[in-house]
C-alpha cells in the first residue's frame, strides 16, 4: 500500500484528493494547508498546517503538491530531499532554471518526479493524437484550441492576480494547450503571439507554425463572467476532429459522424476510449510508476523545458 500526502487544499485539490481516495492501493494519510478551514472538506485524513511537521511525523511514498505556482519548486525539492516521490500541479515553475533543479534533485535522491500536465491523460485529447499518429484521415492541415473563461476569483492572497506568483494566463491557462502541442506534434518551427493584458482581463492568441500545418491556441480571463470553455478542432485532409461542448466528434468526408469517447457500440473504432477522469488518470499513472519502479515517460524533462521555453518569451 502506497502512502500519499497532499499539500495545498485550494481549487485543484478538489480533483486530486478524491482521486487519491478512490485508489485501493494508495492511502492518502495526510493533507496540509495553512488555512485550516480548507482542509475541513476532506475528513478522514490527518490535518497539518505545517508542511515540515507533516513530513517529520509520517512516512510517505508520494507527495502531491497542489500549491500556488510560485511554491511548486520549493515544496517539491523539500519533499524529494526527504526521499519522497513527488508529483506537482502544472506548471513546473515560472523559471526555466527550475527544470534542471527539480530533475537533478530527483536524480540525486533516487526518487521519481512528475508534473501533472493533465491533457496528456485526457481521453479526447489522446484520441486526437492517435488519429494524427495513425494518418487515418490524412495529414493535419490546421487546428484551433481554446481555454476561455472569466477572470479567476479567490485563491490564497489573490495570488492569481500577481504576475510574479502565477504568471497569469500564459503559465496558468495556455500552458495546458501548449504542453499538449509539444506532446502530440513536437516543437513548432515558428510562432507568433498577440496578447491584451489589462487589469482584470487577459487574453492571448498564439499561432504555432509546424510547416505543413498550423495551430491557433486561444486563452482568456475575461472581465465578463464568461463560463469556462475548453476544446479543440483539428482539420485533417479527410475529416474534422472536434472536441466541443457536446463531446468529441469525428466528421469524415463521407458524411459520417463518430463519437469515439462515448462508449456506444455504433461508435466502435480503433480509437475508442471509455469516458474517464483525466486527473485520476495522471495520478494513477504516477502511482503505478512508483509502485512498479518504472521510469516516468509520459511527461519528460525535455518536453517540459520546451513548453517553458516559449512561454518564457511571451510572458
* Helix percent band: 25-40%
Helix-strand makeup class = alpha/beta
Using only C-alpha atoms, the radius of gyration works out to 20 Å
| Strand element count | 14
Average residue pLDDT: 93
Task: State the strand order across the main sheet.
Answer: 8-9-10-7-11-12-13-14
The ordered string of helix (H) and strand (E) elements is EHEHEHEHEHEHEHHEEEEEEEHH
The number of helical elements comes to 10
Poorly predicted segments:
264-268
Bulk shape: globular
Distance between the termini: 42 Å
How many strands, which pairing sense, and closed or not: the largest β-sheet?
Answer: 8 strands, mixed
Strand content: 25-35%
Architecture blueprint of SSEs:
Layout: E1 2-7, H1 13-22, E2 26-32, H2 36-39, E3 46-48, H3 51-57, E4 62-65, H4 72-80, E5 85-89, H5 97-109, E6 113-116, H6 123-134, E7 140-148, H7 163-166, H8 168-185, E8 190-198, E9 201-209, E10 214-221, E11 229-236, E12 239-244, E13 247-252, E14 257-258, H9 278-291, H10 301-314
Parallel strand pairs: 1-2, 1-4, 2-3, 4-5, 5-6, 7-10
Antiparallel strand pairs: 7-11, 8-9, 9-10, 11-12, 12-13, 13-14
Please name the defining characteristics of this protein.
eight-stranded mixed beta sheet, six-stranded parallel beta sheet, about 325 residues, alpha/beta, 14 strands
Task: Write a brief structural summary.
By secondary structure, the chain is of the alpha/beta class.
Question: What would you note in describing this structure?
Answer:
- Strand 4 (62-65), helix 4 and strand 5 (85-89) form a beta-alpha-beta unit.
- It contains ten helices and 14 strands.
- The model is unreliable at 264-268 (pLDDT under 50).
- It is α/β, with parallel strands linked by helices and 315 residues long.
- Strands 8-9-10-7-11-12-13-14 form an eight-stranded mixed sheet, with helices on one face. A six-stranded parallel sheet has the order 3-2-1-4-5-6, with helices on both faces.
- 33% of the residues lie in helices and 27% in strands.
- Helix 4 runs parallel beside helix 5 (97-109) and helix 8 (168-185) crosses helix 10.
- It has helices at residues 13-22, 36-39, 51-57, 72-80, 97-109, 123-134, 163-166, 168-185, 278-291, 301-314; strands at residues 2-7, 26-32, 46-48, 62-65, 85-89, 113-116, 140-148, 190-198, 201-209, 214-221, 229-236, 239-244, 247-252, 257-258.
Amino acid at each position: 500500500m502506497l502512502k500519499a500526502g497532499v499539500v495545498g487544499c485550494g481549487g485543484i485539490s478538489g480533483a486530486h484528493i478524491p482521486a487519491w481516495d478512490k485508489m485501493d492501493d494508495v492511502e492518502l494519510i495526510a493533507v496540509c494547508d495553512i488555512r485550516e478551514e480548507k482542509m475541513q472538506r476532506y475528513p478522514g485524513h490527518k490535518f497539518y498546517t505545517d508542511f515540515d511537521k507533516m513530513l517529520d511525523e509520517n512516512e510517505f511514498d508520494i507527495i502531491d503538491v497542489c500549491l500556488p505556482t510560485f511554491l511548486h519548486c520549493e515544496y517539491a525539492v523539500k519533499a524529494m530531499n526527504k526521499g519522497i516521490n513527488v508529483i506537482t500541479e502544472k506548471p513546473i515553475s515560472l523559471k526555466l532554471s527550475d527544470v534542471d533543479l527539480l530533475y537533478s534533485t530527483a536524480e540525486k535522491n533516487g526518487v521519481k518526479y512528475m508534473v501533472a500536465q493533465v491533457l496528456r491523460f485526457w481521453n479526447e485529447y489522446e484520441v486526437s493524437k492517435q488519429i494524427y499518429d495513425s494518418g487515418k484521415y490524412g495529414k493535419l492541415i490546421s487546428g484551433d484550441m481554446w481555454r476561455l473563461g472569466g477572470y479567476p476569483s479567490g485563491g490564497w492572497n489573490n495570488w492569481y492576480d500577481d504576475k510574479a506568483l502565477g504568471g497569469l494566463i500564459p503559465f496558468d491557462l495556455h500552458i495546458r494547450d501548449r504542453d499538449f502541442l509539444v506532446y502530440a506534434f513536437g516543437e513548432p518551427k515558428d510562432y507568433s503571439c498577440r496578447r491584451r493584458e489589462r487589469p482584470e482581463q487577459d487574453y492571448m492568441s498564439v499561432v504555432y507554425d509546424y510547416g505543413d500545418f498550423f495551430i491557433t491556441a486561444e486563452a482568456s480571463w475575461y472581465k465578463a463572467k464568461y463560463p469556462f470553455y475548453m476544446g479543440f478542432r483539428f482539420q485533417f485532409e479527410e475529416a474534422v476532429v472536434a472536441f466541443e461542448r457536446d463531446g468529441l466528434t469525428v466528421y469524415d468526408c463521407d458524411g459520417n459522424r463518430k463519437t469515439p469517447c462515448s462508449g456506444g457500440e455504433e461508435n466502435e473504432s480503433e480509437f475508442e476510449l471509455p469516458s474517464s477522469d483525466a486527473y485520476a488518470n495522471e495520478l494513477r499513472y504516477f502511482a503505478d510508476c512508483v509502485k512498479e519502479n518504472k521510469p516516468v515517460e509520459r511527461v519528460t524533462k525535455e518536453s517540459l523545458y520546451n513548453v517553458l521555453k516559449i512561454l518564457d518569451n511571451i510572458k
